Amino acid sequence: MMQKLEKFLMPVANALSKNKVLSAIRDGFLITVPITIVGSIFLLIANFPLEGFLNLMTSVFGEGWDAYLGRVSAIAFDCVALLGVLSIGYCYAREKGLENRIGGAVVALVCFLIITPQRTFVEVEGAAEAASFSGFQFTFLGTAGMFLAMITAILSVEIYAWAIRKKLVIKMPDGVPPAVMESFASLIPSAIAMTVFFVVGIIFDHTSFEYVHYFIYRVLQAPLVGLGRLSGFEVIYQFLSTLFWFFGINGPAVTNTIFSPIHKVLTVENYEAAQAGLEMTNIFTAGFSDFFCNFGGGGSTLGLVIMMAFLGKSNRMKTLGKLSLPAGIFGINEPLIFGLPIVLNPLMAIPFILAPVANTIIGYLATVTGIMPITLGVQLPWTCPIFFSGFLVTGSVMGSVVQLVQLAVDILIYYPFFKLLDKRYLDDESKTSSKTDELDELSFDDLEFD
Amino acid sequence: MNIVLIFDQGLAGAGGKSNPNVGLTAVKGGIGSALMMESHLEKIGAKIAATLYCGNEYFLNNQEEVITKMTAMVKKVKPDFAVCGPCFNFPDYAKMAAMISASILEKTDIKSCAMMSVENGETIENYKDKTPIVKMPKKGGTGLNDSLADLCALIKGTVESSSDLEDIKKRVCY
Questions:
Q1: Mutate to test the interface with B, among A447, A449, A450 (most CBs of B within 10 A)
Q2: N or C, which end of chain B has less CB nearby within 10 Å?
Q3: Do A291 and A409 fall within a single domain?
Q4: When comparing pLDDT for A363 and A435, which is higher?
């Protein structure tokens, strides 16, 4: 059964994690994560969930202090497609083996801006016609443009790389500085990519969609992101991520190729709703996924580590538990994955897969019943410890309470399996101490050397 | 058939980066990641006699001592085969494994191999002529189970002096 499952999963994992397009999109979004986190911190300070803190800030800095902080969070969230097209373009240039990766990234950015509306129309009361001014609007640079950003980055760099491969480049004589040489080599490939997007933009101008943004949004982004609003979405993501880990395959590296763009859109949509004074409706944000599904790393192993450290009877469990606990609090469980081990250990597979799924269901139910508020459109470092993360990402202490309940459930799920493994290790250790042969007294201290 | 495993602290279940200076330790039977190898080893009738390990930084700071003592300990235990790995893409551990395996092959009659992922290019280049090095995926990569089966094929072929040993080596080693 396990072998059959692995035979099926291996090619899937290979196809997804080695696919150049999907890897570039996944890694490109990873590049934007620090920006989103910094933006989130500015956003959190401006909207800190403690009234006293906000009043204090107003008394020190005066009314409107939060607007200044908004300048940073606006770039992180409202320009998410702009950042995405640049970083995905860069990563795809890497995947295509281009030497001039930043050249590819810049072409991707430029192509995206070519097809983005450069004039903004505003209805003015009393005027017969809408007024307009020259400039980009956040609407097209933020979440609504995300899937277009991905497609543009891939296609433009593909064209750029194709032209370079076909040697459609201007060669400079030897002795010209490398930077100048590289710049001229990019000229024709950039021109081809930019012209293609120029034509695409014009074609869409003459359709009922008006802009490519609207077209991609309606035919691709809205249906895909719609999947993320289904109640089973996060459960499937969590289930697959841990299932792959059990076979030693880095689960999220595989699943994020598909799921991370959707998580990102769902998160930023909540931010945009809050900024517009509307109700936030997306439950499965990045914050939900990071802080209400897994505690202590993949498989939600924090509960297990706590038991190992404090309830373990075998020396092996106790030692590994105590050594793994500090890292576990910050969401890292590598010592456990290979040391316990969890990889290829059928006994631990069951709770390892079950615990994140149970957490997801509890978090979902707690949100829809209103026990805790919906997660904000902020992204915190995934190493943010339990209880703090729950409070910050929901803006309510109930977030921490729900995490406490989830941790308790994780402990219950892991308990029987932990006891079985602990007993097995204890038997191993007592066998060693009963001394049946010379191997029982192995020590590096009494070695003889020839 | 008796096997000795040579691990670093991470695989031995003695903590990862939090415990890099743990000294030379010998334990009877298999510990830590040995559990994921047992079902494969059983198929070729092999049993883990002992696991030897030390921290990656302990190795870096005491290279000569670690190599000499690990070799002497393997000689003392007298297994049919010593497995120095699986090292995934952990660079210090991979270097340690390659050096110990080469030393075991050079200084004793015991058969041995190392096992690591392709990311350890320099170590593989420097030691692949001195010890067989079994191919495996990096941490989180695909094909771990298959590579453990490859390892067992090499162990069995080597211990039984199989006629197709060279073919096996060509298939499973760098």
A1: A447
A2: N
A3: yes
A4: A363
Gap between the Cα atoms of B113 and B81, Å rounded: 8
Residue A277 and residue A174 share a domain? no
- Write out pLDDT tens, residues A189-222: 999 999 999 999 999 989 988 889 999 999 999 9
Give residue-wise pLDDT tens across range A399-417: 999 999 999 999 999 999 9
Mean pLDDT of chain A: 90
Instruction: Label residue A102 by pLDDT band (50, 70, 90).
Output: very high
Do A211 and A245 lie in one domain? The reply is: no
- pLDDT for res A252: 87
Inter-chain CB proximity B142 and A432 less than 8 Å = no
Q: What is the pLDDT of residue A115?
A: 95
Q: Which regions of B29-84 does DSSP assign to beta strands (E)?
A: 47-54, 81-84
Whether residues A238 and A207 fall in one domain: no
Is residue A16 domain-resident?
A: no
**CA A336/CA B10 separation, integer angstroms:** 8
* Same domain for A54 and A178: yes
Total CB pairs under 8 A between chain A and B: 123
Which residues are B82's β-sheet partners?
A: B4, B112
Q: Is residue A340 part of a domain?
A: yes
The mean pLDDT value for B105-125 works out to 96
Q: Which residues of A68-95 are buried (b: 16+ CB within 10 A; e: fewer)?
A: ebbebbbbbbbbbbbbbbbbbbbbbbbb
Same domain, A306 and A368: yes
User: ipTM for the complex?
Assistant: 0.81
Chain centre to alpha carbon of residue A107: 25
Of B16, B25, B49, the CB nearest to A334: B16
Name the minimum distance, in Å, from the CA of A348 to any CA of chain B: 11
**Do A358 and A277 fall into the same domain?**
yes
Residues near A370 by Cβ (< 8 Å), separated by ≥ 6? none
The total number of structural domains that make up chain A: 2
Chain A residues within an 8 Å CB radius of B11: 338-339, 341
**Closest approach of chain B CAs to the CA of A339, in angstroms?**
3
Nearest-by-CA chain B residue for A435: B28
Point out the domain boundary residue: A226, A252, A268: A226
Residue numbers of the domain that contains A82: 23-121+131-226
Query: How far is residue A308's CA from residue A187's CA, in Å, rounded to a whole number?
Result: 61
Task: Write a three-state SS string for B104-116.
Answer: HHHHCCCEEEEEE
State yes or no: pLDDT of A436 exceeds 80.
Answer: no
- Inspect the interface and report whether the beta carbons of B145 and A248 lie closer than 8 Å: yes
| Confidence (pLDDT) at A15 | 83
Whether residue A166 lies inside any domain: the answer is yes
Q: Which of B25, B31, B140 sits opposite A250 (nearest CB)?
A: B140
For testing the chain A interface, which of B142, B144, B152 should be mutated: the one with the most A CBs within 10 Å?
B142
Give the rounded distance of the alpha carbon of A232 from its chain centre. Answer: 18
Asked whether the beta carbons of residue A442 and residue B27 sit closer than 8 angstroms, the reply is: yes
Q: How far is the alpha carbon of A306 from chain B, nearest alpha carbon, in Å?
A: 15
Q: How far is A316 from chain B (nearest CA, A)?
A: 7
Sort out which chain A residues have CB atoms less than 8 A from B88's CB and list them: 338
Q: How far apart are CA A11 and CA A15, in angstroms?
A: 6
Share of chain A above pLDDT 70, in %: 98
Q: Do B142 and A14 touch (CB under 8 A)?
A: yes
A338 to B10: CB separation less than 8 angstroms, yes or no: yes
| pLDDT value at residue A28 | 92
Rounded mean pLDDT, A235-255: 88
Write the CATH number of the domain with boundaries B2-172: 3.40.50.2300
Residue at a domain's end among A192, A226, A260: A226
Specify the amino acid at residue A257. T
